[in-house]
């Protein structure tokens, strides 16, 4: 466990590096804690001058601090309520790129995972093609038993990354606890819960078997989708630090010229990106939460192919219903229903007025109907919605953080393919289909059937519960029939408690003894 002194030392170094690159100047003054003006004035004095953009300088600073800070920066891009809108916009441009580690280390990692040299597992194993904060990717070839050769993508975990993240997360927790302790706003934002979410996400990314399982689950969920797929996993060549998948021959979604040259319909691809994300989030409750253009390809058949499933999002039934009804409420301009959904989900405390909350939502929603389709941002709308909910004491919902982050990225990708994309018309068929399927007559009948099934299972277990209660009563009766003899350990514990002067422990022990001695049965 990291020491408090070490945590504060690392946080001080991080503060210096970030201040040097001008990050402090990008924080909205309204977001700064009370009494912090001297610190921000000092940060201004050490700020480095230069022609580079603020986004580039922030990226350079986070890269210098290491993989943990790159991940933290990407994560905070979804939290303008924490870092302010200016800094959040800069962080949205942050790319997860790190220097590649040496080829011999990658081959040693493979040998350690499979107890065989890398070139016995792969026919060929090329140099790193891309390196990020958690792992890097190589191209390899595999010779199957029948003699056919196929290309594979090999993802290898960065060396010592687990230890580095563990140390840095200790510092993040220290800062979050300090923020919650010193500020009511920090408690409302649930800073510790934010770090919890980051820690869970990163810990899953650092076991590549879990990414393989995510790919497999996503493939199963989307097996019947005509326009989306993920690469197949080579389980024989996958371990905790190594993931092998099918090699994808395709065009990256940000290479617009190559997509046009290949004859792809870019507006259609934009619709596929948006509708695939909503379909996975609503229908399956399991979605790719890192859908930036570098992770998305178009294959020769015109299918969207998503790679790198290290970060996945899950939504339970309540969250899926919340998302669907919120979007549908904005599509249909039903502000009262949109407000009611927040209360039904328990996101807004009941002491507030539903009508007042509906009025606040109307203030967000109505202006969008006077704008052109290409000026409407669903991601911005969700951000504004979460800002308004803060006025009504809605606490941060960690389970919605990845959803909001992914919505921002997906919308950007879709708009890059089709700047005129109408987000409402694109989303409406998926959302309406989910509403009709789950909240219509069929959904109600399935809900009733599910409730009856749960009741039936409870009734089936009732005889066992009654029998268990009878056995406990019989055992207590036998134990107390001839009087209660306190065990030596119990009397010694009472004596020790009295000796220490622990008055409340003594009272508790004697009360327990008296209850048993008085034959108090059920």
Automatic annotation (TrEMBL):
Swiss-Prot/TrEMBL keywords: ATP-binding, Cell inner membrane, Cell membrane, Kinase, Membrane, Nucleotide-binding, Transferase, Transmembrane, Transmembrane helix, Ubiquinone biosynthesis
InterPro entries: ABC1_dom, Kinase-like_dom_sf, UbiB, UbiB_bact, UbiB_kinase
Biological process (GO), any one: ubiquinone biosynthetic process
Molecular-function annotations in GO: ATP binding; kinase activity
Pathway(s) per entry: Cofactor biosynthesis; ubiquinone biosynthesis [regulation]
ABC1 atypical kinase-like domain segment(s): 94-341
Domain of life: Bacteria
Record has Membrane as a keyword: yes
Protein family per UniProt: Belongs to the protein kinase superfamily. ADCK protein kinase family.
NCBIfam families (alphabetical): UbiB
Name of the protein in its database record: ABC1 atypical kinase-like domain-containing protein
Biological source species: Starkeya nomas
């Amino acid at each position: 466990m990291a020491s408090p002194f070490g945590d504060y030392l690392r946080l001080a170094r991080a503060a210096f590096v970030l201040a040097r690159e001008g990050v402090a100047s990008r924080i909205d003054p309204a977001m700064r804690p009370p009494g912090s003006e001297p610190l921000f004035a000092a940060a201004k004095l050490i700020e480095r001058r230069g022609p580079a953009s603020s986004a580039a300088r922030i990226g350079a600073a986070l890269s210098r601090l290491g993989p943990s800070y790159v991940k933290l920066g990407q994560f905070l891009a979804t939290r303008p309520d924490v870092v302010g809108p200016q800094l959040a916009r800069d962080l949205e441009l942050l790319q997860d790129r790190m220097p590649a580690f040496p080829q011999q280390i990658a081959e040693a990692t493979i040998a350690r995972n499979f107890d065989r040299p890398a070139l016995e597992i792969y026919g060929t194993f090329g140099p790193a093609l891309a390196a990020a904060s958690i792992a890097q990717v190589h191209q390899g070839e595999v010779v199957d038993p029948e003699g056919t050769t196929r290309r594979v993508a090999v993802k290898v975990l960065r060396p010592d990354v687990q230890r580095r993240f563990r140390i840095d997360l200790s510092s993040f927790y220290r800062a979050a606890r300090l923020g919650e302790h010193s500020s009511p706003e920090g408690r409302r934002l649930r800073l510790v819960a934010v770090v919890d979410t980051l820690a869970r996400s990163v810990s899953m990314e650092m076991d590549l078997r879990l990414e393989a399982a995510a790919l497999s689950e996503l493939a199963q969920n989307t097996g019947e989708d005509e326009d989306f797929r993920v690469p197949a996993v080579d389980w024989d060549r996958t371990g905790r630090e190594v993931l092998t998948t099918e090699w994808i021959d395709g065009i990256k979604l940000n290479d617009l010229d190559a997509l046009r040259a290949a004859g792809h319909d870019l507006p259609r691809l934009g619709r596929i990106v948006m509708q695939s994300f909503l379909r996975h989030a609503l229908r399956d409750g399991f979605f790719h939460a890192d859908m930036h253009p570098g992770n998305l390809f178009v294959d020769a058949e015109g299918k969207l192919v998503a790679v790198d499933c290290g970060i996945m999002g899950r939504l339970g039934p309540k969250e899926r219903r919340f998302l669907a009804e919120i979007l549908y409420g904005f599509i249909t301009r039903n502000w009262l229903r949109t407000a009611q959904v927040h209360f039904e989900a328990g996101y807004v405390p009941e002491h507030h007025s539903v009508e007042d909350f509906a009025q606040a939502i109307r203030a967000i929603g109505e202006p969008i109907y006077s704008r052109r389709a290409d000026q409407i941002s669903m991601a911005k709308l969700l951000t504004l919605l979460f800002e308004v909910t803060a006025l009504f004491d809605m606490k941060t919902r960690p389970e919605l953080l990845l959803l909001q982050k992914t919505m921002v990225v997906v919308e950007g990708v879709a708009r890059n393919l089709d700047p005129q994309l109408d987000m409402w018309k694109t989303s409406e068929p998926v959302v309406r289909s989910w509403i009709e399927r789950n909240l219509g007559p069929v959904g109600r009948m399935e809900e009733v059937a599910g409730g009856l099934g749960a009741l039936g299972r409870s009734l089936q277990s009732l005889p066992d519960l009654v029998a268990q209660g009878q056995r406990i009563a019989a055992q207590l009766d036998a134990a107390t029939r001839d009087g209660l003899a306190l065990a030596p350990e119990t009397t010694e514990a009472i004596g020790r408690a009295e000796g220490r002067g622990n008055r409340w422990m003594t009272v508790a022990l004697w009360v327990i003894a008296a209850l048993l001695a008085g034959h108090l049965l059920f």
